[in-house]
Design a protein that fits this description.
Layout: H1 10-14, H2 22-36, H3 44-57, H4 60-67, H5 73-76, E1 93-95, H6 100-114, H7 126-131, H8 134-154, E2 161-168, E3 171-179, E4 182-188, E5 196-198, E6 201-203, H9 212-227, E7 233-238, E8 247-253, E9 256-262, H10 266-272, H11 282-295
Helix pairs in contact: 2-3, 6-8
């Protein structure tokens, strides 16, 4: 089970309330096993999720740990993207605060949702996140996605420069990455489910009618105009389990190739370059970096 704030809880997978008794929990588990077992026509993936949910809350000790948020709550907190002090390898040049504006908005709204006068010492507590409205959990999931992308890029080395949380006209551009393989605009997302594609855009129940590719390209156009630079490619980064294949090209929009990638292959793609993207080197790379550094503003 994913640690995403959008993932169904173990209780939801088994179809019981968090207040269910141990006997109710056990009966629900057995019923869900029968419903999802592949030998009786069930779905193999659903069967695996049911088994995993039982591992998480099937015993008194495991259930208590799960209810405290062990293994999930820590992943929802702010985590540094800097290298450990023992890591002396050169890092990518990094500017801005990945996921920062989403985290600030999440904390503000989750306190409003809790209500005036309600003590909410920890907005990342497991019970708070799991019970928060869908829009709030989407904000936190987006922040986590940006932070995960930032960690990947940081490890790519000093040849890479990245700007996080860029104000681009009336849009927000999650990341701008300058590398020898090209200049890229990147959107980091987590919709909490599998996505599909139609006419160069992401679709699916989890996407909820959003147009992430169009939003990304609009932000890139605004940033390109302000800095007088030219992007070589657009990348949408999603959790691995959201995509059926590692890299999905969506074609070119106004000459800019667009790809959707699993998070685990982002580093490789940035090193190798998006197919069709124009590489940047020498004096041009220095010029592009200077232009961006002078014009980029952060949210």
């Amino acid at each position: 089970m994913s640690a995403s704030p959008l993932s169904a809880s173990a209780y939801e997978i088994l179809g019981v309330a968090p207040s269910a008794s141990d006997d109710e929990l056990r009966r629900a588990y057995r019923a869900r096993l029968r419903e999802t077992h592949p030998d009786t026509g069930g779905d193999d993936a659903a069967f695996i999720r049911v088994r995993r949910a039982w591992e998480l809350i099937g015993t008194i000790e495991a259930r208590a740990a799960y209810d405290r948020g062990a293994g999930q709550e820590s992943a929802w907190r702010v985590t540094p993207t800097e290298a450990p002090k023992t890591d002396t390898r050169p890092r990518a040049r990094s500017h801005g605060h990945p996921g920062g504006w989403r985290r600030e908005r999440y904390v503000e709204l989750v306190r409003e949702w809790a209500g005036a006068g309600v003590e909410l010492p920890d907005p990342y507590a497991a019970d708070v996140v799991r019970s928060a409205p869908d829009d709030l959990r989407h904000l936190l999931a987006g922040a986590l996605a940006e932070e995960a992308t930032a960690r990947t890029i940081a490890h790519l080395g000093i040849g890479f420069t990245v700007w996080h949380g860029v104000a681009a006209g009336d849009r927000i551009l999650d990341h701008i990455v300058l590398s020898p393989s090209g200049l890229y605009g990147i959107a980091s997302a987590d919709f909490g489910g599998e996505v599909r594609f139609r006419r160069g855009e992401l679709i699916g129940e989890a996407v909820r009618g959003e147009t992430p590719v169009a939003v990304l390209l609009a932000g890139m156009r605004a940033a390109a105009k302000a800095a007088r630079v030219r992007f070589g490619g657009a990348i949408v980064v999603l959790p691995d389990d959201a995509l059926a294949q590692p890299v999905t090209p969506l074609g070119a929009v106004r000459g800019v190739p667009v790809v959707v990638v699993r998070r685990s292959v982002l580093g490789h793609l940035l090193r190798q370059g998006v197919p069709g993207a124009r590489p940047i080197g020498g004096n041009e790379l220095f010029d592009v970096r200077t232009r961006l550094q002078a014009t980029v503003r952060f949210v």
